[in-house]
Fold this sequence. Notes:
The complex is a heterodimer. By secondary structure, chain A is α+β, with helices and mostly antiparallel strands. Chain A contains eight helices and ten strands. Chain A has a single domain, classed as 2-Layer Sandwich (BirA Bifunctional Protein, domain 2). Chain A has helices at residues 7-18, 47-54, 94-111, 121-126, 183-189, 196-201, 206-216, 224-247; strands at residues 2-5, 26-32, 36-39, 60-62, 70-72, 76-83, 117-118, 150-151, 157-166, 169-177. Chain B is an all-beta fold.
Amino acid sequence: MHVQASADDEQDWIRKALAEPVTRAQWRVWRYRAPAIVLGLSQRRRHDEIAARAGAALPVLVRASGGGAVLAGPWMIGVTVLLPSWHPLAAGALVDSYRWFGELHMRVLRAFGVDSRLLSPQELRDGDSRVAGFEPLPWACFGALSPWELVDSGRRKLSGLAQQRRASGIALVAGTLLWRPPWSMLCEALDRSDALEALAARTIDCESIRESIRKSAGFAPSSERQREDFASDLAAAIDAALASVLEGG
Amino acid sequence: MIAIGLDDGAWKDVEPGTEALVDRWLVGQGEAVKAGAVLAVVVLVKTSIELTASADGTIDRIDFAAGSTFARGVPIGWLRETA
């Protein structure tokens, strides 16, 4: 199911779903009506300070999964998958749960002309943690890399993953950048304006990847309408892919 | 005594040297707990994980307070099983 909602609606849906034992796989694909900052669980102690800086127009929420802050908004597609603890896709190590989820995103995006690749644990272990010459920014989800996240050929991050493993079930979450987010909103709220250039350089979005192909083919850049159509079609395709994997339908 | 912590399997493919974070304890030292009760929440590789009691018992010791980090194979506390 794909829905237009707020980041708060998403967190509320997850919270309510995990309040009871999860008995079957469920999912939502989210398009966000308005911007919001979603802090990782361990950042909650900074909530009030960040909210004061963000102001009333930019809500600051805390999610129950780990990782750095996410700037949700119309420029991002979110995906939540809830699984019972016994589900085969939840079996195995924590990191294994990310793999199928990342692969599904990569497969769907490729069908839309968005080429990306998965970052393996070995590449993370052996590779340079710098991207485009900039050190990781762990306070921002998109500022650092984790296993099985999606990156482009320059290791710039396209999709971020996180999860929570509760006694009642497992929630996997993903966020994919559709077009370039206004990173200054996040940097200013977290008092890290100094890192704006680095965050922008360490990330990539679907539109930028597609535009590079369109330009080389001599096409004009996407219009606002094409942008919305792409986001809507991508949400529907992720939804269908999840239905196929989780329901076999 | 039963160790409270992450199974070794949870650390598979995790970058060597990575530590997990104790986000919070939901029980205190000396507290009686039932099997299945959530004892603590820890975070590893962007995953928040509830640690549950594997048996009825009493929290004997908390070795890692909330906000501290711990390495692979290290229990963060101990559960004394009810006889």
